[in-house]
Each structure stands twice: as C-alpha cells, then as structure tokens.
Design a protein that fits this description.
The chain is 61% helix and 14% strand. By secondary structure, the chain is α+β, with helices and mostly antiparallel strands. Helix 1 runs antiparallel to helix 2 and helix 2 runs parallel beside helix 5. It has six helices and five strands; from the N terminus they run H-H-H-H-H-E-E-E-E-E-H.
Length: 258
C-alpha cells in the first residue's frame, strides 16, 4: 500500500475513534483544546498528502524520462538492426553476383576448352601437309600440344599460344619456295637421292640424278608422289635457278589446285 493510501486509512480510523469518543462522551464544541487537536491532525494529514503528491509527481517524471530514454534506445537498436539487415541483404546480393560471375567464367572456360580442342585438331590436320624436311620447325610446338581427349595440366593460354605459333610457322612456310635434298623410292623401288622443290605447302617437284622426275601433293595421310617424266627438263631448270647455277627465268610447271 502506498503512503497516500496509508494516510487515508489512518484518517478513517482516527475519525472512527473520534466518533466513538463522541458517542461515549458528550460533545463539547466550545472546548478550545479539542478543537486545536482536531485542526492539528487535519493540517498534518494535508501536509502528508501534499508530500505524497509531490513525491509521486517526481517519481512519475523520472519514470517518464526512463520510458522516453528506453524508447529512443529501442529506436536506435531497430535502426541498427535495419541497417544490419540491409547490409546482409547487400552482402547476399554481392555474393550471389560473385557466384554468378564465377559460374559464367567456368562456362566460358569450358567453351574455350572445346574451341581450343577443335583448333588443335585442325592444326594437327594441317601439320600432316608439312613435308618432312620442314617438320623439324614445327615439331617442338606439336609435341607441346596435349593428346586429344587426354586430361592435361597445360593451361588454355599455353595451348592457344602453341596453336598460334604453329599457324604462324605454317603460314611462313606456305609463302616460301624451299629446295631440299631427300631420299625417295623411285620407280625401281630402290631409295635414291633426289632434289625436291616445295612451292609453299601445296605443290612439290623432284628429280633424281638419273633424270627421273615426279610431282608431289599433300593429302589427308601425308604427301603423295607420282611420276612426271614429261616435265623433268623444266624441274631441272627450276632447280638450277634456285641453286644460282642459271639466270632467273620463267619456268612453266604443272599445278593442280585442290
């Protein structure tokens, strides 16, 4: 029970006691002593009520201040929680974007791997058109290419670099005329030394010391050779020009375009 409630109860008890005394004793309103005592009790009661009201008002203000402070703290915490949730959402969004980018890069990597495998297959086919005297220039790059369908640790960048190196070398060879000395089986089946003129990577002519001549062309399984005795003089003349034994001149030779 609060102090104000206790005071009111005491006043009720006091009034009851006074009523009991008045009923047992005759009232004497003219008695100054009884009047002063009654007025003193009434004043004390009013003072007590005033103190209780003041203390209650002060307590109320303190309590309201605490409630306001707590509400502000709750508001700050809710704002921080909202920012944290937003940051978490942004983080999740950035993480999702990063995961998407990684998956895209993986897909692009797989696509590049398929393309580089196709290019390597095409380069191998082109390499079959390289005559043996010229293969030594591209063999080191060809050996660096991984086998088709076999797992490899060679990076895609290195594989593309090998392909570009081989293509550059093949392009250079295809723009040159090359004179080479080779051993070739002739019509009698015996291997003989011949001189061969390669016109790029698309046509070749050879002649032996006995005057046996032939024409070579690249195919899917390497170079194929066929006799060409009717153009032996022209082949011999072209070789003498390339060896600087004759002055430059126009030499007609048969060419087959495939």
């Amino acid at each position: 029970m609060s102090r104000a409630g206790l005071t009111v109860a005491l006043l009720v008890v006091t009034a009851g006691m006074a009523g009991a005394q008045e009923s047992s004793a005759p009232a004497n309103p003219a008695n100054p002593t009884d009047t002063r005592a009654l007025v003193g009790r009434w004043i004390g009661t009013q003072q007590m009520i005033a103190r209780e009201r003041k203390e209650w008002q002060q307590g109320k203000e303190i309590l309201l201040g605490r409630i306001d402070l707590n509400q502000r703290e709750i508001g700050d915490l809710e704002e921080q929680l909202g920012e944290a949730r937003k940051a978490a959402g942004d983080s999740d969004s950035r993480q999702a974007e990063a995961i998407g980018a990684v998956e895209l890069l993986k897909a692009e990597g797989r696509d590049l791997e398929r393309k580089v495998a196709e290019l390597e297959s095409g380069v191998r086919d082109l390499a079959r058109r390289v005559p043996e005297p010229l293969r030594q220039k591209v063999d080191p790059l060809l050996r660096r290419m991984p086998e088709a369908g076999v797992p490899t640790r060679v990076s895609l960048a290195e594989r593309f670099q090998n392909i570009l190196g081989i293509l550059n070398e093949l392009n250079r060879m295809n723009g040159e005329i090359t004179l080479a000395t080779e051993i070739r089986a002739l019509s009698d089946g015996r291997p003989s030394e011949v001189k061969t003129v390669y016109i790029g990577l698309g046509q070749a002519y050879f002649i032996s010391a006995r005057g046996e001549a032939g024409i070579g062309r690249p195919g899917n399984d390497g170079w194929t050779w066929e006799p060409a005795l009717d153009v032996a003089p022209q082949i011999a003349a072209a070789i003498e020009i390339l060896e600087n034994k004759s002055s430059p001149a126009f030499v007609p030779l048969p060419v087959r375009i495939q």
